[in-house]
């Protein structure tokens, strides 16, 4: 059984940085997409960044130039480096991993990121 777990969230001042990691237990045969989403209070979950083999990296306009998504290793599959964090980045951040089959769609439970002075 595949389980994802995000780590690295916390409280940071505006202008600060955090690095999120998504670790996996279990085996995903073939990964097609790795992504980070976030959900702020009262808002819908939104795609922040994603990476797929052979495809350009995707970043939402809100984070472009500040966040960097990168592949990790067999345990920590994907990272999200977040720089110059702003209060509007406050949200729960979720890792999403998709495989080739439609049933291979995995989510972590999220990690809270709070940006405040």
Structure characterization notes:
This protein is an all-beta fold and 117 residues long. Helices cover 0% and strands 53% of the residues. The protein contains no helices and eleven strands. The mean pLDDT is 95.
Report, as a whole number of angstroms, the end-to-end distance: 40 Å
Mean pLDDT: 95
Q: Give the helix proportion (percent range).
A: under 10%
Oligomer class: single chain
Task: Name the beta content range.
Answer: over 45%
Number of strands: 11
* Helix and strand sequence: EEEEEEEEEEE
The coarse overall form would be: globular
Main β-sheet description: 7 strands, mixed
**Low-confidence residue ranges:** none
Gyration radius over CA: 14 Å
Structural class based on helices, strands and sheet pairing: mainly beta
Count of alpha and pi helical runs: 0
List keywords for this structure.
single chain; 117 residues; mainly beta; 7-stranded mixed beta sheet; 4-stranded antiparallel beta sheet; 53% strand
In short:
The chain has 117 residues and is mostly beta strands. The protein has no helices and 11 strands.
Structural topology:
Elements: E1 3-7, E2 10-12, E3 18-25, E4 31-39, E5 46-51, E6 58-59, E7 67-71, E8 76-82, E9 91-99, E10 105-107, E11 111-115
Parallel strand pairs: 2-11
Antiparallel strand pairs: 1-3, 3-8, 4-5, 4-9, 5-6, 7-8, 9-10, 9-11
């Amino acid at each position: 059984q595949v389980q994802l777990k995000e780590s690295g969230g916390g409280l940071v001042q505006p202008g600060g940085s955090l690095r999120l990691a998504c670790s996996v237990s279990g085996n995903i045969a073939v990964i097609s997409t790795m992504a980070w989403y976030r959900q702020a209070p009262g808002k819908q979950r939104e795609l922040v960044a994603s990476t797929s083999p052979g495809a350009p990296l995707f970043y939402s306009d809100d984070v472009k130039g500040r966040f960097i998504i990168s592949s990790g290793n067999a345990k920590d599959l994907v990272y999200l480096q977040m720089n110059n964090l702003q209060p509007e980045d406050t949200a729960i951040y979720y890792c999403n991993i998709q495989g080739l089959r439609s049933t291979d769609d995995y989510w972590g439970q999220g990690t809270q990121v709070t940006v405040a002075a």
